[in-house]
Design a protein that fits this description.
- The complex is a heterodimer of chains A (75) and B (367).
- With 75 residues, chain A is of the alpha+beta class.
- Chain A has one helix and five strands, in the order E-E-E-E-E-H.
- Chain B has 17 helices and eleven strands.
- Chain B has two domains: 11-318, Rossmann fold, CATH 3.40.50.11740; 320-366, no CATH class.
- With 367 residues, chain B is of the alpha/beta class.
- In chain B, helix 9 packs across helix 14 (260-269).
- Chain B is globular and about 65 Å long.
- Classes of the chains: A alpha+beta (75), B alpha/beta (367).
- The complex binds iron/sulfur cluster (SF4).
- Residues 318-320, 323, 330, 333, 335-336, 340, 346-347, 349-350, 357 of chain B line the site of iron/sulfur cluster.
- Residues 318-320, 323, 330, 333, 335-336, 340, 346-347, 349-350, 357 of chain B line the site of iron/sulfur cluster (SF4).
Chain lengths: 75, 367
């Protein structure tokens, strides 16, 4: 029940967005997350977007992993 | 790094990265054995699925705490939902994993077989739909879950809703549970892996006073294997340097202040109350109740069903409490995987996806 899944935003509407996960589309509420755009990834839980997945932060963490693994992992 | 955004998710699953990070973890000479607790069913599933316990250094263990909201839901609330479902023209709506939770009063599935009208929904919005489609009936949403679920319900409470929809709020909050675990000191814990998605909602602020009070190294972690091992590295670093902070290794989803809209919605809709956790006891300030101004949405008030004295404080018929408090592993329960399986669950820990026993049972299938 607490499972939140990153889903790709396909279409943005007022208060709702169409998102896609593994080829399946559904509508989720975006009342709790501002500034959602097509192409964003959002974490969806029980029909609500609860957070955006920040691509810049993801890239920073990957850079850190790269450093911690001595840069020889072809990430 | 590849351009494709999907590769960002792949990076956190990368086997070679996992192995190199584990190597790094092993190279850190731990001066004593460490026990790190997580409090999230999704973490337990990820740990089981990716076999993380099996590759950790010997003196580093990860145990599961009370991370299953379905498991800690008190029997008196299950009883209330059962009784409501048997009233004429009342439909009770809840999440699928609540249905089979064993309880001395009978499960919600049992109630359905006894002609109770209980339906499974994916989320609170479906409850609104059912209420709209059944204007001549009362729809009651049995709202179980931690902050991740509570915020969605809270955002609905403040909006325009069908007259015939009410809520049984049975939400529970994570930070007071951590405080409780440390205060009772029944389980030795050297560090916390904090739940990524609860933290996406509440941020880091509520954890900080607890971390300071008990000097407990902590880290918010995501759910891919790399995330979990990065989290463990942070805990080990904190222990070795004598620090205790609330680190965040899940910055792609968690901001320090959490989700301000979600926090506000919860603050507007709910009062914080002391709440019973099944098998654990009453934890101060660990639950939500609807604010007075939303009293007409409160299913506990709308229907005159008296709380059951008989099922108050009712725990488990099995070792679930020990499992949820991290005192024993599921395989130390004599019923595990013989009498108690996902098809024949004896305790709620074997029912829900988030239950530790269910995760351990599945791990057997994965390995
Ligand atoms: S294995 Fe079953 S009976 Fe044993 S603690 Fe887990 S849920 Fe309870």
């Amino acid at each position: 029940m607490c499972l939140a899944i990153p889903m790709l935003v396909r279409e943005v509407k007022d208060g709702f967005s169409t998102v896609e996960y593994r080829g399946v589309r559904r509508e989720v509420s975006t009342l709790l997350v501002e500034d959602i755009n097509e192409g964003d990834y959002i974490l969806v839980h029980a029909g609500f977007a609860i957070s955006k997945v920040d691509k810049v932060e993801a890239a920073k963490t990957i850079a850190l992993i790269d450093e911690l693994t001595d840069g020889d992992i072809p990430l | 790094m590849k351009e494709n955004f999907f590769s960002i998710f792949d990076a956190f699953k990368d086997d070679r990265a996992v192995l190199r990070l584990i190597e790094r973890l092993k190279n850190k000479a731990l001066s004593r054995p460490l026990k790190v607790m997580h409090v999230c069913g999704t973490h337990e599933n990820a740990i089981g699925r990716f076999g993380i316990r099996e590759i950790l250094p010997q003196n580093l263990s990860v145990i599961a705490g009370p991370g299953c909201p379905v498991c800690v839901c008190p029997v008196e609330d299950i009883y209330l939902a059962r009784e409501l479902s048997r009233l004429k023209d009342v439909i009770v709506l809840t999440f699928g994993d609540m249905m089979r939770v064993p309880a001395p009063c009978g499960s919600l599935s049992d109630a359905r077989m006894e002609d109770g009208d209980i339906r499974i929904v994916y989320g609170p919005f479906d409850a609104v739909k059912v209420a709209e489609e059944n204007p001549d009936k009362e729809a009651v949403f049995f709202a179980v879950g931690f902050e991740t679920t509570a915020c969605g319900v809270a955002s609905l409470i403040g909006s325009e809703l069908p007259q015939n929809l009410s809520f049984i709020i049975s939400h529970r909050l994570i930070p007071p549970a951590l405080d409780f675990l440390l205060k009772t000191g029944e389980v030795e814990i050297d560090g916390f892996i904090l739940p990524g998605h609860v933290s996406a909602i509440i941020g880091l602020v509520d954890y900080i006073p607890i971390i300071k009070r008990y000097k407990i190294p902590s880290v918010v972690a995501g759910f891919e294997p790399v995330d979990i091992i990065m989290g463990l590295l942070s805990i080990v670093d904190q222990v070795e340097s004598g620090e205790s902070i609330c680190a965040n290794s899940y910055t792609r989803a968690v901001e320090e202040k959490g989700n301000p809209l979600a926090r506000k919605a919860m603050k507007d809709a709910f009062d914080i109350v002391d709440a019973l956790w099944r098998g654990i006891g009453v934890i101060p300030g660990s639950g939500y109740a609807l604010k007075e101004r939303f009293k007409e949405r409160d299913g506990r008030r709308r229907f005159s069903i008296l709380p059951s004295k008989e099922y108050k404080d009712e725990g488990f018929d099995c070792s679930c409490a020990g499992v949820m408090l991290g005192k024993i592993n599921p395989d130390e329960c004599p019923l595990f995987s013989n009498k108690c399986t996902p098809d024949t669950p004896v305790g709620p820990c074997m029912v829900s996806f988030e239950g530790t026993c269910s995760a351990w049972y599945k791990k057997g299938a994965w390995s």
